[in-house]
Amino acid sequence: MKITTIGIDLAKNVFQIHGADARGKTVLRRQLKRAQMLAFFARLEPCKVAMEACSSAHYWARKLNTQGHTVMLIALQYVKPFVKRNKNDAADAEAICEAATRPEMPTVPVKTASQQAILSIHRARQSFVKARTAQANQIRGLLTEFGFVIPQGISHITKCVPEIIEDAENDLPGSFRQLIGRLTEHLKVLNLHVTELESEIVRWHKENEASKRLAEIPGVGPLTASALVASVGDARNFKNARQLAAWLGLVPRQHSSGGKPTLLGISKRGDAYLRTLLIHGARSVLRFKQAKPDAGTWTEQLLARRHKNVVAVALANKNARIVWALLTHDRRFRLDHMSACAAV
User: Fold this and answer.
1) Nearest Cα to Cα of residue 54 among 75, 31, 79, 83
2) How large is the angle between the packed helices 113-145 and 222-232, nearest 10 degrees?
3) Which residue among 163, 180, 315, 317 is least enclosed by CB atoms within 10 Å?
């Protein structure tokens, strides 16, 4: 029988393959070593190949696409309901294959090598920022034990710590002075790494036309724009703007029954990093609005009746929908733009 759908359970060295024909009948069960993967699929006729959107999935998707196969990447939570009985590699591959046959199954867009590279820089920068914050808090905490309270902010540490170390009248032990000096040097190294990676992201942003268009949205800077372009890819994969906002976890959760809609807080699904960038960008816009209020704007009207944190999330949701419109229609942001429905 002709194989029409194949599910692959990815791993480091051993891959489980499950194939089915057009009627869903199992026609292939096999384990492959890593070195056998490309040669095996090169001998097959082009078919639908499904994988979980996990580590190395985008790499294998690009490789199999070049061989003529149609690759689907499916999120883990959509595959799990199809696992029968106990979990093992064969059952996972079968579940992936069955999930791929569902007509309305959501898929994850396959990222290019360039998109993966810039997102890797984002992740590395994020880890350095966390390490820098942890190091700053450690220095501040150790100095507090000796009676020195440093204000919040990394800039205060780099300014105050040298003065504390060089002060010979504060009775600090010599070993402790050396320790704080060493931790401060480590903090400077972490800060340098963050600065260098941000420079690489900004350089990529300036070379990408779509990223530059997104940065024109208030509350969206080079970091947010580059991360969105690299993560979203082709925005036409989303049917409408709300789907992109839901993919980012910025829409309300539902607990509705009996025809009565019940909306809760935001779902917080999807990429927490992108959602954080959008919400922090919205907060910066709100700070500017509070400094220069304009009673006629949508933001000011919302601030008058809701908490500023709620307004920040609502503005992030709105910006996500604007991002979809700009990427889908290849347009530039216009502050005075009015939709056709609103103009009627």
Assistant:
1) 75
2) 140
3) 163
